[in-house]
Design brief:
heterodimer, A: Naphthalene 1,2-dioxygenase Alpha Subunit, Chain A, domain 1, 9-stranded antiparallel β-sheet, 4-stranded antiparallel β-sheet, 16 helices, 22 strands, B: alpha+beta, Nuclear Transport Factor 2, Chain: A, 7-stranded mixed β-sheet, 3 helices
Chain lengths: 458, 165
């Protein structure tokens, strides 16, 4: 049996191709949970979800159930959702407010920072049992950090700071927050939870894939192109139909003006795919005019022009976060098992913007992230077919070489495709994958090694 | 307490209409299903129990008339991958009650229960929930002014939903 030494893992990620077993071997999956999800900074929630002391929401890192909670001291803590007594999950609901957490099994209680508060029948325990022992608690995740409202946690005791880990990707978060006239976002509008039967990695691998829409989404593109615009719409259908039509943009569009950028640690973003003008008829739209006025009032005309000129589609933060700053969407990919993945999607309200803008965010969420979307359902079908197809044991290597020989260094410190149809962002994720998987010192960030610098081992 | 429909001719008509609608969907006659809706109709499957609005909260499906037409066109004529092979469904609509009738009797709100089994690719799923139809009289039958489907598991983890409820 394979032991998956570092040397062996390195053989599985080659220039422009990766070995099939990265998606099919349960031992790889277990190693990923330990070496990637327990080392990286993982998004656990937004600070607006826990506004008041005692507010909590359940969350997870990899398969580990956690609770993100704001304590009486005003700080946000991330706790392992496990009673120190017999291991029961303490917090069962998705969100709420609590003055303390009480286990259902024997009533042990915890402060909202995880410290043990009271034990039922506390007499007769042996000497080691000290209720003040931080290990006898809903144990805190030691490293929690917040970038402009986005809360991340890392199960690694040591490693780079969140900002070091994110690097240039902080600018995508800035883009999302800066779009709010009041400079703050609020998570709102519900959560989609969609599932598919394939490996967690295939999801982010699709999100900057500029070559897939005209194949995967041909049915919704054609249906939208044939739609008469004179039929009644309350505005929501119009946004959906614009989005579907945009998916039908020809390769000449993708190859001339969109762009794909990648950064160390596996992160990436796709450029100017849609913008407000294409999607909500911005300049003639009264709500959008109001929004621009609100921005200009708070930030001035120059800064407003700068904010609105930033055009990014999906920004992906390795290993499992993707967000869309222009339309205030965020997706978190939760690996459940080798061939089972659940994706939670969130929306954000731009504080200080007209409420009509949030209606657009909701309409947009329904078409790009909706479980019943005319678009997403064909993506989910494709993921399911990847799960089934890989079980065939056919081609041993999966090809991720599109654009390989034409990728370029970028002045922002990353590397980009010559055009947006390059699979550079997948190669970049596997570069990070290899870094996490082979570094046995639990050091999350490795110095990026670009694919062509790696020797061909075969 | 809402009126029980059974036993009067108008309510029998409503039940027959709901059964007819379910049959069109089960037989994948989506274009005929679309023709049941009024020109400014909406069709809504909320994402949360008791959801109050489709505008401030996401929905599993929320289609104004324009998007509903696109949804039906995709199912009927543009061959979505997610329907190759197509689903087969079997629905039971029952427990219909009249919730409200307009003063002139031309429009009524009907609540009913839906059980739908969907089969596709060796996988069978069960959906259950409450339907609310706003029906308006048209010729000898009704048109749907709006339809809301509250699934009991609307806020659950779900795989893709392609066939309308």
């Amino acid at each position: 049996m394979t032991d998956y030494s570092a040397a062996h893992l390195r053989e599985l990620v080659q220039p422009g191709r990766v070995h099939r077993s990265l998606y099919t071997d349960p031992r790889i999956f277990e190693l990923e949970m330990e070496r990637i999800f327990e080392r990286a900074w993982i998004y656990v929630g937004h600070e607006s979800e826990v506004k008041a002391p005692g507010d909590y929401r359940t969350t997870r890192i990899g398969r580990k159930p956690l609770v993100m909670v704001r304590h009486q001291d005003g700080k946000i803590y991330v706790l392992h959702n496990q009673c120190a007594h017999r291991g029961t999950m303490v917090v069962a609901g998705e969100r709420g407010n609590a003055s303390e957490f009480r286990c259902c099994y024997h009533g042990w209680t915890y402060h909202t920072d995880g410290r043990l508060k009271a034990v039922s029948l506390p007499h007769g325990y042996p000497a080691h049992f000290d209720p003040k022992d931080p290990g006898i608690a809903m144990v805190q995740v030691r490293r929690v950090a917040n970038y402009r409202g986005f809360v991340f946690a890392s199960l690694a005791d040591h490693g780079p700071s969140l900002e070091e880990f994110l690097g240039y990707m902080t600018t995508s978060f800035d883009d999302m927050v800066d779009r709010a006239p009041d400079g703050e976002l609020e998570a709102a509008g519900g959560v989609f939870k969609h599932a598919y039967n394939a490996n967690w990695k295939v999801y982010l691998e699709n999100l900057c894939d500029a070559a897939h829409p005209i194949f995967v989404h041909q049915s919704s593109i054609a249906a939208a192109e044939q739609q008469s615009d004179s039929v009644y719409s309350d505005g929501s259908g119009e946004i959906a139909i614009r989005q579907m039509r945009q998916n039908g943009a020809p390769y000449s569009f993708w190859e001339s003006q969109v762009g794909i950028w990648t950064y160390p640690n596996g992160h990436s973003f796709l450029g100017d795919y849609h913008d407000d003008a294409k999607l909500v008829a911005a300049l003639n739209d009264p709500a959008f005019r109001q929004y621009i006025t609100a921005l200009e009032t708070r930030k001035g005309t120059d800064e407003t022009a700068r904010i609105l000129s930033v055009r990014r589609w999906n920004s992906n933060v390795y290993p499992n976060l993707s967000f869309m700053s222009q339309f205030q969407q965020l997706r978190v990919v939760h690996p459940i098992g080798l061939n089972r993945t659940v994706v939670y999607t969130y929306n954000f309200r731009l504080k200080g913007a007209p409420e009509k803008m949030f209606e657009r965010t909701i309409s947009f969420a329904n078409i790009v992230n909706g479980t019943g979307s005319l678009v997403l359902t064909d993506d989910l079908e494709t993921y399911n077919r990847i799960g089934i197809g890989l079980a065939s044991g056919g081609a041993e290597w999966l090809e991720i070489g599109r654009g390989y020989t034409s990728d370029l260094a970028d002045e922002t410190g990353g590397r980009r495709g010559k055009n947006s149809t390059s699979e550079i962002y997948i190669r970049n994720m596997f570069d990070a994958w290899l870094g996490f998987m082979t570094d046995e010192q639990a050091q999350p960030v490795r110095r990026i090694e670009w694919p062509e610098q790696r020797a061909v081992s075969k | 307490m809402s009126a029980v429909l059974r036993g009067d001719r108008a309510t029998e008509q409503v039940e027959l209409f709901l059964i007819h609608e379910a049959r069109l969907l089960d037989e994948a006659r989506y274009d005929e299903w679309l023709a049941l809706f009024t020109a400014d109709a909406w069709y809504w499957v909320p994402s949360e129990p008791g959801q109050r609005s489709p505008y401030d909260t996401i929905s599993l499906m929320y289609d104004d008339r324009r998007l509903l037409e696109t949804r039906v066109r995709r199912l009927m004529s543009t061959q979505p991958h997610a329907q190759q092979p197509p689903s087969r469904t079997s629905r039971i609509v029952a427990n219909a009650t009249l919730e409200e009738t307009a003063a002139d009797g031309r429009a009524l709100t009907v609540r009913s229960k839906l059980m739908m089994v969907e089969f596709r690719l060796d996988n069978q799923r069960i959906f259950a929930g409450t339907c609310t139809h706003r029906l308006v009289r048209a010729d000898d039958s009704f048109r749907i002014a709006w339809k809301r489907v509250d699934l009991i598991n609307s806020d659950s983890v779900l795989e893709g939903l392609v066939v309308p409820f």
